[in-house]
Amino acid sequence: MTSRGLVKAVAYAAMRRLLRAAVFAAVVAAPLAARAQEVNLSRLDDEPANRVHVRTGAEYGFVASVGYARTVSLLDRRLLLTSDVTFPFGNADASDYRVRAGALVPIVGSRQWRLAGTLAPTARGTQNAAGTMTSLGTDVGVQGGFYARHWFVAGETGLDWAMTTHIKHSDTYRELVYEGARDGWYAMSGGIIRYGLQAGASFGRHDLTLRAGQMVEVGGEKPMLPFYGTLSLDTRW
After folding, report:
1. Where are the domains of the chain?
2. Among candidates 110, 58, 6, 15, which has minimal Cα distance to 214?
3. Check: CATH 3.90.70 for 3-236?
């Protein structure tokens, strides 16, 4: 191989690595960020068992979500099975989404002071000039604080971990960047750590909750928008 050919080969390899990193960042840092389940834990044992919620706010961008949850009993313990779907606010494009299904499980509690853990497998997708990307991962978290019947204040922390990403490269990418790009699953893992506060008010069968906090990538870098803030309304029936 000539020196010129070697330089081109090295440049192609470097560009491919850079693009893969950029693609993964685009998936993880899409406007569908990590979040915890906002629940007044002192009301977890209350009937009725069904819940729906709507949420809006800033998580890498303006987002809106809707979800359903149900309280069930398992081994003499009450836990909350959860699900939700999130889209960028004002964007009807179904190619940008996040879908989650998981559970919130009380860990310890003494009167008003309570601690709970969350686990939620997550699928998210996005589409841009580079192609169509689908990421699979999981979200784990802990929340705890003071929970009264009509209000609560708690801290939260968690990790939104993307484990693998499927990439279908666009024709534009093949023409301008790398013609031989292969579609398929790439084991490009990474995630976002969150930490913040929740404050809520409970009235009748409704909960109104405000969340706010900071986010940082696992490697220590800050996202483009390193904070989050959401407002949600939960209704039980």
Report:
1. 3-236
2. 58
3. no
Between strands 62-74 and 131-147, the pairing is: unpaired
Q: Are 52 and 84 in contact (CB under 8 A)?
A: no
Tokens of 146: 């003071």
pLDDT tens-digit readout, 182-236: 999 988 668 899 999 999 999 989 999 999 999 999 888 888 889 999 999 999 9
| b/e map 21-33, b = 16+ CB within 10 Å | eebbbbbbbbbbb
Q: Which residue has the tokens 């949600």?
A: 232
- The answer to whether the pTM exceeds 0.85 is no
How many angstroms separate the CA atoms of 97 and 31, rounded?
A: 9
Radius of gyration in angstroms for the set of CA atoms belonging to the chain, rounded to a whole number: 21
